[in-house]
Design brief:
With 497 residues, this protein is an alpha+beta fold. The protein has 15 helices and 18 strands. The longest helix has 22 residues, at 165-186. The relative contact order is 0.10.
Length: 497
């Protein structure tokens, strides 16, 4: 079998012959009248419109060629699907057929012709004109093996999309998912807005930022880790219902669930509580699942997930007791709780224990022993203030907050809470974060004085939420890795492609 370089050289020879014959390799004047899907709809719904005089102008990439001397069947594909075409010398002429013989799988062509049925009953295009639109120099992967190597698929997504129809359908579904969420919120009087991706201070989440420098302003800037503080400024300004489908950047690890650049939905509703948003989230997810998956009951990686009905709700402490097996008597002692965690092999890294309060110990135990077991949609509420610096305190339990996280298939999908709008309380929590930083907390914390100033002008009682679009897309497309639902995931440099 010839090597890829040999194939490329042969294609270059064909390209040179086509050039010498005066044919343009990359014209830009072909007009398409119908997509493949348009033609299929006519065949299925209005076959009476097909006659000997019918003419369709189509364009697409050649995916297969079967030659028979002076004729050939090909399969070509456009954005809407594949169709068979029949090329005959007596229809297109000797000169055009001579060009056709120099074409390869992967080339783009335009054809005009009518429709006919083959002996097997397949509707096909009988070309009476054929034009080269774009010549491919590199060969596509071999038909029967396709493109299976994940490394190559992620690095050369364009090739993945060409060869794998299921991948194309997956990203169409992802786009439809985003559109469904957008329309769900717009129908409920939310306003879509945009906030800065480059921010003077990193804020809105507990994460490490990417840092850059602006030459004209002579200042450091950070790629946003979350749009939260800016969206709440807009609530203060009078936009009572706002949302942003945004790109966030966190300078942390990469895994099947984490990409340094990812998509989030964040939305904020004035005069609402975290409980209102739990209800809204149920409704949103059920609506989107029905639209994208066609059902509220679907399979994800071998597990049957059911979005219907009211979802389970547990407090953090209840989940630790019922699922992790933590005795309630331990909840009042950080040292005893820490000992329990260590006995379960839970590590807290190299941080000084002074930077870790009992709230962080609880949530670490939860992350390791509870989260992986939450398969069906489950809201966890009652998070400690220590790990919820932007959440409103609970009236009943001042050490806890009015906050929830949503878990599905053993992972966090959403995080929401009643917002803290007391500027003094907010400033004190920021100061507490700074003390933790001095005690060994590795996450950078800076007080956003302008955000405090905005709260001092008065923000109405508000609830806000963030939803991981990538993880939701994983769920609804049965994708094991976040890289499967991101068109261009970040990868280490490599020359092995």
């Amino acid at each position: 079998m010839s090597s890829k370089n040999d194939v490329i050289e042969k294609r270059k020879e064909k390209i040179q012959m086509i050039k010498e014959s005066g044919i343009e390799l990359f014209p830009n004047d072909y007009i398409v009248s119908h997509t493949v899907n348009d033609i299929k709809k006519i065949v299925e719904e209005k076959p009476e419109e097909i006659s000997e005089d019918s003419s369709f102008s189509v364009a697409g990439r050649i995916m297969a060629i079967n030659r028979f001397g002076k004729s050939a069947f090909i399969r070509f594909r456009d954005r809407s699907g594949q169709l068979q075409a029949y090329i005959r010398t007596d229809q297109v002429g000797d000169e055009v057929y001579s060009l056709f013989k120099k074409l390869d799988i992967g080339d783009f062509i335009g054809m005009t012709g009518g429709l006919f049925q083959t002996k097997t009953g397949e509707w096909s295009l009988l070309a009476n004109t054929l034009q080269l639109i774009s010549k491919a120099m590199r060969p596509l992967p071999e038909k029967f093996h396709g493109l299976k190597d994940p490394e190559k698929r992620y690095r050369q997504r364009y090739l993945d999309l060409i060869m794998n129809e299921d991948v194309r359908e997956l990203f169409v579904k992802r786009s439809q998912l985003v559109q469904a969420i957008r329309m769900f919120l717009i129908d409920r009087d939310f306003l879509e807005v945009e906030t800065p991706m480059m921010q003077p201070l990193p804020g809105g989440a507990d994460a490490k930022p990417f840092k850059t420098y602006h030459n004209s302003l002579s200042m450091d800037l950070f790629l946003r880790i979350a749009p939260e503080l800016y969206l709440k400024r807009l609530v203060t300004g009078g936009f009572e219902r706002v949302f942003e489908i945004n790109r966030n950047f966190r300078n942390e690890g990469i895994s099947t669930q984490h990409n340094p650049e990812f998509t989030m939905l964040e939305f904020y509703q004035a005069y609402a509580t975290y409980e209102d948003l739990m209800n809204l989230t149920e409704e949103m997810f059920q609506s989107v699942a029905q639209s994208i998956a066609g059902s509220m009951d679907f399979e994800y990686q071998g597990e049957q997930i059911n979005f219907s009905g009211s979802w389970k709700r547990l407090t953090l402490l209840e989940s630790l007791e019922k699922i992790a097996g933590v005795a309630p008597t331990l909840f009042n002692s950080k040292d005893e709780l820490m000992s329990f965690a260590l006995s379960k092999g839970i590590s807290f890294g190299n941080r000084d224990n002074g930077a870790i309060g009992i709230g962080k110990v609880m949530t670490k135990i939860f992350d390791v022993l509870v989260e992986p077991k939450l398969i069906q949609p489950t809201f966890i509420t009652g998070y400690p203030v220590e790990v919820s610096p932007l959440s409103r305190r609970s009236k009943e339990y001042p050490d806890l907050t009015d906050r929830f996280e949503l878990f599905i298939a053993g992972r966090e999908i959403a995080n929401g809470f009643s917002e803290l709008n007391d500027p003094e309380d907010q400033k004190n929590r920021f100061l507490h974060q700074l003390k933790n930083k001095e005690a060994g907390d590795e996450t950078p914390h800076i007080i956003d004085e302008d955000y405090i100033r905005a709260l001092e002008y008065g923000m109405p009682p508000t609830a806000g939420e963030g939803i991981g679009i990538d993880r939701l897309a994983m769920l609804l497309t049965d994708s094991a890795s976040i890289r499967d639902v991101i068109l261009f995931p970040h990868m280490k440099p490599s020359d092995k492609i």
